[in-house]
Amino acid sequence: MKNVLVISASPRKGGNSDTLCNQFISGAQEAGHEIEKINLRDKDMNYCRACYYCKNHDGKCVIKDDIPEIIDKIIAADVVVLSTPVYFYCMNAQLKTVIDRSVMKWTKIANKDFYLIATAAEEEDHAMEGTIKSFRGFLECLTDVREAGLILGKGVYNAGEIAGNLAVALAYETGKNI
Ligand SMILES: Cc1cc2nc3c(=O)[nH]c(=O)nc-3n(C[C@H](O)[C@H](O)[C@H](O)COP(=O)(O)O)c2cc1C
């Protein structure tokens, strides 16, 4: 049994990437894992100020919002799923804000599997490149973490268009096989 954390960054509840998160969760539940989903749209989040207070204060952040708790949950998880809509060829600002704030304890994010879920309106592979690159850039900074899978929904614009997309079954199967 693994401790799985799913972070959904879309502002659209029931949108395309959020639907893939829910499919992943269904599969992981089916396999008996323990899952927590965090919807960033419900969270109070602020940008990293690069004050480096955390560096000399055991990872404590000066900003009192919901992100320190999210970072602690990432540290505690065996499996982390980062999910985002593609915005201007990159992950969205909501997810990037969490990643930037992980500077408070980034050396403690170790020994776990990461998955990326992303959805984009365009069909072309290059629509995903910037998002995959920034996901990999984050992982590259961490200790003993693995890129365990990419679940990409292309050619989906309006919320709900993901229905019937191959990525839906892939998300379920991937969640089931973590
Ligand atoms: C601000 C913004 C920027 C976007 N930029 C892109 C883009 O660069 N490439 C693309 O293919 N789709 C782009 N889209 C479309 C979304 O990626 C697409 O609708 C996606 O399925 C949304 O996922 P969601 O339903 O999970 O929010 C953009 C949408 C928004 C709102």
TrEMBL record:
<dbReference type="GO" id="GO:0016491">
    <property type="term" value="F:oxidoreductase activity"/>
</dbReference>
<keyword id="KW-0285">Flavoprotein</keyword>
<dbReference type="InterPro" id="IPR029039">
    <property type="entry name" value="Flavoprotein-like_sf"/>
</dbReference>
<dbReference type="InterPro" id="IPR051796">
    <property type="entry name" value="ISF_SsuE-like"/>
</dbReference>
<dbReference type="InterPro" id="IPR005025">
    <property type="entry name" value="FMN_Rdtase-like_dom"/>
</dbReference>
<keyword id="KW-0288">FMN</keyword>
<feature type="domain" description="NADPH-dependent FMN reductase-like">
    <location>
        <begin position="3"/>
        <end position="122"/>
    </location>
</feature>
<protein>
    <submittedName>
        <fullName>NADPH-dependent FMN reductase</fullName>
    </submittedName>
</protein>
<dbReference type="Pfam" id="PF03358">
    <property type="entry name" value="FMN_red"/>
</dbReference>
